[in-house]
Amino acid sequence: MSGKGMKIWWSGEAVSKGNILHFLFGDRDETIKVARLTIDRMKRVNTLSMTKRELRFFAKDLESGRLGVKYSYHGFYTKLIRKLLDLGFMEKDVAIWDAKHQKTPRVYQLKLQPIPERPPQSGFVRLTWQVAKAWNDLIQSPA
Prior knowledge:
Shape: globular
């Protein structure tokens, strides 16, 4: 990560209640709304993904305010997508077979975190497990 780093607002209560986006993006309400819109849009497809083209048009819709939130194109990629990629909550250039179009496009895909069912005993490992569990719960919840 760069020198900017990630600001951490640790709140076990917020994370346990499924407010993982507040943990990741702090008090930036618009960024949280845009993150929720992006995740909900990706959850519409059973592969939890969007092609690069779909993501670009989604970002343009955000920039114009058509989705109810006005958010800059550049900010979408730098503040939201880059952070999700850096933290491992999203993958880029994943090849997924598209039966409808009979091809394998490269997509941005939300990533479920591989964690055990039971949390570790204590310490940093338990906190990271809680974050990963909250992320998985967000991704697996109905849209």
